[in-house]
Amino acid sequence: ETGVTQSPTHLIKTRGQQVTLRCSSQSGHNTVSWYQQALGQGPQFIFQYYREEENGRGNFPPRFSGLQFPNYSSELNVNALELDDSALYLCASSDSTGLRIGELFFGEGSRLTVL
Amino acid sequence: AQKVTQAQTEISVVEKEDVTLDCVYETRDTTYYLFWYKQPPSGELVFLIRRNSFDEQNEISGRYSWNFQKSTSSFNFTITASQVVDSAVYFCALSDPYGQNFVFGPGTRLSVLP
Predict the structure, then answer these.
(1) A41 in helix, strand or coil?
(2) What is the Cα Rg of chain B in Å?
(3) Nearest CB to A109: which of B37, B43, B103?
(4) Tens-digit pLDDT profile for residues A11-58
(5) A60 φ, ψ (degrees, to nearest 5)
(6) Does the beta-carbon distance from B100 to A41 stay under 8 Å?
(7) How far apart are CA A89 and CA A112, in angstroms?
(8) Are B33 and B94 in contact (CB under 8 A)?
């Protein structure tokens, strides 16, 4: 069983730039969600995709957008980067059906620094 | 609005001591799920337990136990005979009835000293 993998692990951008983060879901999972974790804080829910459709969104502006592909991998795109976007971005996959509902499997994250 | 509070920012204990991590939540949903996740220094959050709001039975898994009290909106986590490997940040979380739209607490950093 392949776990959740994210890329890149670290990246540095400057204000105003755009970034794309990638995530490969765990095999057999149909749902992917993205979280922003600032230093010393808990993860904040950005959005969730189920079968290529966004089906939940947290309190993040539209410049945060995403995609889920037919193989259930996913991308997080952030436009017009701001200094406050510096954080660890976590991808989590899950199986939205069955007995493991809500059990998230996380990747190790992509650490974004905005200068 | 949904909210999870973990009042303990950091806890330090000596190995073999018992330790309880507190979690208090707020939700308007009558059905919801509660979770605990562990984040070791490597950064990857690891699922520990899920509890349905209708199931108030306490649960024990090895050295871990959980106390869910709906009357006080609390879902506390106790580690018995702590070990150095238990050192991590622990997050309590709340989801909607479909196991989606998670809200995480700020976390409690547990340090277990040898």
Answers:
(1) coil
(2) 14
(3) B43
(4) 999 999 999 999 999 888 889 999 999 999 999 999 999 889 998 899
(5) -125, 145
(6) no
(7) 7
(8) yes
